[in-house]
């Protein structure tokens, strides 16, 4: 029986397995620049975040209809359930779809139909987190927030992802203020490739509740102390960090040191179709590579529920 856990850092577009990508491409008449799934998988050798993002965005061309988004999401829920996931807070990237002419309604309705069946079909409760692409303009993020107004009942929080360096959290101050005014919760990727100062900005300027990744906080002892004191959750993604060369090897990953420093860490899969494992695989990998024993794995699983939006969401709904 896998340990029951919540997954808090998962890009739904990053669950697009090569087999499904080719099936959807055939159904939608989209030509992929790869001969077959083997050739596609062989392209998953990344140098850094940007080299991954290039493949990630280009493969999204196969996602066109509401059914495509349903199928993608339902397939993720089935895989996650098999690895002990009981609750998932799922990122999606609306701008990566609207910019290719796929309406926001198509995306959200496909995702929502799968999530609505999540409890019954897979035993997983869910939340949706709408991410802004930080390498697009703040105006584009604001337009995206505006366009999402008819779907706010479907969206728990906003997030910030894509190319981090050169796109600090402060760029999105106004859009985060507007999101908060609409009653949305806030998270942001920070300290993946970007410096510890971006983590501070995410906290102080955007007012986020959780930091996605955050591992570069380890370069700044004062920041580590603050994150530990304020119990700010970090959604750490060890397999992603190795594949995107944020760390050289899993054995060198700072997760164990982060936990020893008193940080509220969770373990997540980020983009599992690209990074070699879903969240249960990730738990197994950190056990093997970092020697995290049963007790530490239980702590990580417990943290995932503590850091989730489950706890106080119901009260907030009366807002
Ligand atoms: N989008 C999908 N995965 C991402 C990651 N690891 N960092 C930033 N943006 C992303
Ligand atoms: Zn991510």
Automatic annotation (TrEMBL):
Note on cofactor: Binds 1 zinc ion per subunit.
Domain Adenosine deaminase: 4-319
SUPFAM superfamilies referenced in this protein's UniProt entry, alphabetically: Metallo-dependent hydrolases
Main EC class the enzyme belongs to: hydrolase
Binding of Zn(2+), residues: 9, 11, 189, 270
EC code: 3.5.4.2
Keyword Metal-binding in record: yes
Reaction equation(s) it catalyzes: adenine + H2O + H(+) = hypoxanthine + NH4(+)
Annotated function: Catalyzes the hydrolytic deamination of adenine to hypoxanthine. Plays an important role in the purine salvage pathway and in nitrogen catabolism.
Protein name as annotated: Adenine deaminase
Originating species: Streptomyces maoxianensis
